[in-house]
């Protein structure tokens, strides 16, 4: 089908997408249905979003317990929180954003070396959500690469721009040790102890970096950078250069929920509770549904670091969290099970992996 500009929607394949070409209009296949409500976000309001000073995890017992309390409440109410005093140097954050942006500025020929629509590939460059073949397309370009253990994957990463491997590698290592610290606090907050998952996450755990670029969009009210979804990680740690991330606050409006634009404050990192922590908590904590809105003038870069168990290691509900009042609510699953789901399902249509894991009463 051709639109009035003579473009067939089926021609927007990766490498040739509207966002990569910087088209001055939004083609029909990018227009999201009204049910996605791209416009209804609350104003950015930093007081709504929980912000936790995690340096206190290393403090006295009382300080640590204070953080654990805040974490428990943020995970229950939002499935999301921001962290300050995380210990990662600002230069490391800034340089990772610079090399990420540098990669997207490279000539198409250079980026296309990494182009792949194989969701199992350890390094791939593509557009939209999955492979540029989604029913609705999203104004996003991304590079995804595995990052742990670093020595196993780094030689597959881009060599350009110069410094990409070194700067992104440093960022990945720092974020990963932070993820272990946060996961320890999360398992502790569930009464499982801080080492409940540490050996499984430390030795074989996966770290997948989604390096996202959202070019300026001529129709930020009609298209989205990413549709509402939750992450298939245990947790995701996110760094962004501009606002655009919105989270769905389930408990707002007497339970009917409301979108909240997450403010950008330099140096703050964001933490998403992913589907596997929802399973781990037997539903006490909810994975956060989030989406990305677009900017008409500026390019937004985000680095989303997804942390999970090993590829085939199954996350299941701990027996300690199952009792008469809390029956088993989820089936076990692995990261690979998610990838298999992704191949068969179009998540732009609202299909969620977590829904396939629920055990009906
Ligand atoms: C993701 C994601 C948010 C962002 O990559 O899963 O939700 O701000 N990214 O880019
Ligand atoms: Ni996400």
Automatic annotation (TrEMBL):
GO terms for cellular component: cytoplasm; nucleus. Keywords: Cytoplasm, Dioxygenase, Iron, Metal-binding, Nucleus, Oxidoreductase. Residues 8-19 have a biased composition (Polar residues). PROSITE patterns: FE2OG_OXY. InterPro entries: DIOX_N (IPR026992), IPNS-like_FE2OG_OXY (IPR044861), IPNS-like_sf (IPR027443), Oxoglu/Fe-dep_dioxygenase_dom (IPR005123), Plant_2OG-oxidoreductases (IPR050295). One of its GO terms (molecular function) is metal ion binding. Residues 202-309 form the Fe2OG dioxygenase domain. It is found in: Cytoplasm; Nucleus. Its main location: cytoplasm. It holds the Pfam family DIOX_N. Residues 1-23 are annotated as: Disordered. PANTHER family: OXOGLUTARATE/IRON-DEPENDENT DIOXYGENASE. Belongs to the iron/ascorbate-dependent oxidoreductase family. Involved in the regulation of shoot development and salicylic acid (SA) homeostasis. This is Fe2+ dioxygenase-like. It comes from Sisymbrium irio. The lineage of its organism: Eukaryota, Viridiplantae, Streptophyta, Embryophyta, Tracheophyta.
């Amino acid at each position: 089908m051709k639109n009035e500009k003579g473009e067939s929607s089926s021609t927007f394949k990766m490498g040739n997408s509207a966002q990569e070409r910087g088209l001055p209009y939004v083609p029909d296949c990018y227009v999201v249905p009204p049910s996605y409500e791209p416009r209804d976000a609350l104003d950015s309001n930093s007081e709504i979003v929980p912000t936790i000073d995690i340096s206190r995890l290393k403090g006295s017992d009382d300080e640590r317990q204070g953080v654990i309390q805040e974490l428990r409440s943020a995970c229950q109410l939002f499935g999301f929180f921001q962290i300050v005093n995380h210990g990662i140097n600002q230069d490391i954050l800034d340089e990772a954003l610079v090399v990420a942006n540098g990669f997207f500025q490279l000539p198409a020929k250079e980026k296309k070396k990494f182009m792949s629509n194989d969701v199992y590939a350890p390094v791939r460059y593509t557009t939209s959500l999955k492979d540029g073949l989604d029913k609705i397309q999203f104004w996003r370009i991304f590079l995804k690469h595995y990052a742990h253990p670093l020595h196993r994957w780094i030689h597959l990463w881009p060599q350009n721009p110069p410094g990409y491997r070194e700067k992104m590698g440093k960022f990945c290592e720092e974020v990963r040790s932070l993820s272990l610290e946060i996961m320890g606090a999360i398992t502790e907050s569930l009464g499982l102890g801080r080492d409940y998952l540490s050996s499984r996450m430390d030795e074989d755990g996966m770290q997948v970096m989604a390096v996202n670029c959202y070019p300026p969009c001529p129709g930020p009210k009609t298209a989205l950078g990413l549709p509402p979804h939750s992450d298939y990680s245990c947790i995701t740690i996110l760094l962004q250069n501009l606002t655009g991330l919105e989270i769905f606050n389930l408990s707002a409006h007497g339970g009917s929920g409301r979108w909240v634009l997450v403010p950008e404050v330099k140096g703050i990192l964001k933490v998403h509770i992913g589907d596997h922590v929802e399973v781990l908590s037997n539903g006490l904590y909810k994975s956060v549904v989030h989406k990305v809105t677009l900017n008409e003038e500026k390019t937004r870069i985000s680095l989303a670091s997804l942390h999970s168990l090993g590829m085939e290691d199954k996350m299941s509900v701990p027996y300690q969290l199952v009792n008469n009042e809390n029956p088993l609510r989820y089936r076990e699953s692995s990261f690979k099970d998610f990838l298999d789901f992704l191949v068969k399902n179009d998540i732009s249509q609202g299909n969620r992996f977590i829904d396939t894991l629920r055990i009906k009463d």
